[in-house]
TrEMBL record:
Class II aldolase/adducin N-terminal domain sequence ranges: 14-202
Example GO molecular function: methylthioribulose 1-phosphate dehydratase activity
Species this chain originates from: Catenovulum sediminis
Its biological purpose: Catalyzes the dehydration of methylthioribulose-1-phosphate (MTRu-1-P) into 2,3-diketo-5-methylthiopentyl-1-phosphate (DK-MTP-1-P).
Keyword Hydrolase: no
Keyword Mitochondrion: no
UniProt name for this protein: Methylthioribulose-1-phosphate dehydratase
InterPro entries: Aldolase_II/adducin_N (IPR001303), Aldolase_II/adducin_N_sf (IPR036409), MethylthioRu-1-P_deHdtase_MtnB (IPR017714)
């Protein structure tokens, strides 16, 4: 067990809390759903404790876990989905922040497709790293939900290694969005971009097709 004391950098904790409160204010993290983390180094992340109210998160609601999903302070209970965060940090050393939301559009859209959500024709696609035109097609991978989070993380690893995750986010069916970025700012832009795009797609579906 890694019980090393870790001094949490105040600026990082405050930046993470600020983005989580913003997300909570959008109603993308209701009923304690969602979890949020930030890389501290190549072995540790700062992550939300389990079952905290994300709309009014405090820096004291954060804790440090290592990439083996162990809490440095064993008296604190880390997010139930810590293993997905730590898997992403290990898959890509450039990932600096992982944000997991439970919005209505992401949840319903993920239940209406099989393996991916295809997004085409929206200017907002450019909010997602690597996308430069509405004429491209953004494919967001969808994973079946699983209460066994380490198993779900392994499935993410498998698809990642096959090259099948090429956007800064993925959906878990009937559950929500995981989005990431090199820092909190970029991860927030990705969450906002995805949530906007999912909302557009869902509203188009409700309207019975494209509104063009
Ligand atoms: C309110 S149910 C949501 C949880 O089961 C889970 O999916 C979630 O996102 C929050 O879990 P948490 O342990 O608080 O990080
Ligand atoms: Zn969740």
């Amino acid at each position: 067990m890694d019980t090393k004391k870790f001094d949490i950098p105040a600026d990082k904790a405050e930046a993470l809390v600020e983005v989580v409160r913003f997300i909570g204010g959008q109603n993308w993290s209701p009923a304690t759903g969602g979890n949020y983390s930030l890389r501290l180094d190549n072995f540790h992340c700062l992550i939300t404790q389990s079952s905290k109210d994300k709309r009014n998160l405090q820096t004291s609601d954060l804790m440090v876990c290592n990439f083996n999903n162990q809490a440095l302070d064993p008296t604190l209970k880390p997010s139930a989905e810590t293993a997905l965060h730590t898997k992403l940090y290990q898959l890509d050393s450039e990932i600096g922040c992982v944000l997991h939301t439970h919005s209505v559009p992401a949840t319903v859209l993920s239940r209406s497709v099989s393996e991916q959500v295809r997004i085409h024709g929206f200017e907002m696609q450019k909010a997602l790293y690597g996308n430069t035109s509405h004429t491209e097609t953004v494919c967001v991978s969808v994973f079946d939900n699983n209460q066994d989070i380490p198993a779900l993380a392994k499935e993410v690893e498998r698809k990642w290694q096959q090259g099948n995750i090429n956007q800064p986010g993925l959906l878990v069916r009937g559950h929500g969005l995981y989005a990431w970025g090199r820092d909190v700012f970029e991860a927030r832009r990705h969450v906002e971009g995805f949530e906007f795009l999912f909302s557009c797609l869902w509203q188009e579906r409700l309207a019975g097709g494209m509104l063009l």
